[in-house]
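Q: Structure for this?
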Amino acid sequence: MTTITRRTLGLVTAASILAMAATGAFAQDKKVIAVSIPAATHGWTGGVVYHAEQAEKEIEAAFPNIDVIVKTSPSAEAQVSALEDLSASQKLDALVILPFTSEELTGPVAQVKANGTFITVVDRGLADPSIQDLYVAGDNIAVGANTAKWLAEKLGNEGKIVVLRGIPTVIDDERIQGFTDVIKGTKIEILDIQYANWNKDEAFTLMQDYLAKYPQIDAVWANDDDMLLGVLEAVKQSGRTEIKYALGGNGMKDVVKMVMDKDPMTPISTPYPPSMIKSAIYMAAAQFVGQAPMRGNFKLDAPLITPENADQFYFPDSPF
Amino acid sequence: MTAAIAPSSAGPRRIRLADTGPFIALALVVLIGVLINSSFLSGTNIANVVTRSAFVAIIAVGATFVISSGGLDLSVGSMMAFVTGIMIMTMNRLEPSMGSNAIFAGAGIGLVVGALCGLLNGLIVTVGKIEPFIVTLGTMGIFRALITWMSDGGSIPIDRALRDPYRPVYFGNVLGIPVPVFLTLIVVLIGAFILYRTKYGRRCMAAGSNSDVARFSGVSVAKVRTMAFVIQGLCVAIAAICYIPRLGAATPTTGQLWELQVITAVVIGGTALRGGKARIWGTVAGALILEVIANLMVLSNLVSEYLVAAVQGVIIILAMLAHRFIK
């Protein structure tokens, strides 16, 4: 009995929505912003999901005429399907998307765009930039370069360092490029660069091996804070004292906390914040609420996180 | 088959030679290591590498039971992450009331949860009569999703107050031997005893080499295989117990792809992937070989960082070929 009533109700609602959409009344009343992001499979994407959900709550509370829909997908395939489902069931006024991969998502996003949707691309660009109305991203080269500049200054432009890199991707390449370009201009010697796949365990074992291989290491750079935690554990176990600095990047809350507490080995970090999804959703909303013009590129800086400004980058409730 | 069950008894000479295959391979890899970099043989490096291999070795002891009895478990890496998550959450919950004893309570719960996870795999395989490959592929996804959900995609860190009392379980020593290595030895000794000296061990071999014949001789193949999965679950939990103090957290990437390392270790060790033959000490040698190779890749300057995985693959295949020729 209940199921029948529910089903009828559903039909009635669906019909009324259709009717409203047909008359255009619905579209005028509520602006729909769809947010398509990767599912939380590791720390950083966990942070993206958290901040997208926070933005949804905050924006819906602040602007009753905006409806934010957050959809997470575990793969590029699934993200394409999610886009189809989202745009099939309603008219999207805006789409905020953090694409899994550039090439695979370009076509599907172009199709959504064809219906007149305002497209915001976050973090990873599409193969055809003309599709996007707004592009929000961090600066991976600056993540590497700013860390390198700080380190070079502290080490007096000389010393021996080791580097841990992530998963072979553009993001990883850019961070390493930004870092090594700056180091090339100094007398600092990079003893070794190896992949640890942005994985804490692999970073721990890799650091153990670095310590066995090199009797003198002045500093370590792991291009991600998750890996940094593994590095620190290995350094602690070895009891080696010559290592002056162990730095990361990404602005993970545990590491930002260390910076706040003035940790001598990790006195700074550089942000590549998952909360950039929040910037993107807010900007997309501004396009509709105040008709504030938002078309263009918005590149977040990667300023050093220091004990003085760390509280701005600290989200104790976020999973990252 | 008698030789397979009791390798230490005086069997034909060629079989004993074959048994030494994995150890010769290990010796070779170590020799190469010494030639490549003198710091390879330093006490710290050897201790690091052996301690690191403890996780895969302990899990692989369980996998030796599963594989030799004719099963396969792809879910061990995810299961390990899941059990780790449950243990840390239990310990954190109990810490205010029990203090450091929460570690023991958490470890106990971990063993129970591990055994239950194994039982689940075993029952679906035997009662549901589904290929173990498919069953454990399914539970692999389930356990991985559960740990991701439990951690919101981030990490589940252990309570600060428990860090120091728990730390020695990975970083401490017993009689000069690192604790994880000591635990591995105990697990291997118990495993070897069960496999080579008990009725259950002989039934494992029987179920693995020919399940029909085993059934006709009155062995309950389903029971034997289910039990092997439970043993696997317990081994995963023991590995989790010494894993937690290392980095103090469970994350969605904990134990990722370990199942492949575990299966490789078992097979390099001389256990037949199709079942019926088990080499527990070989399994340990297999786990060590994998860790030593990975260590050498970092210590040597010969291999480009982009090609490390390829060289590792080649060495593993060469080790297996050497093994075949020694036979």
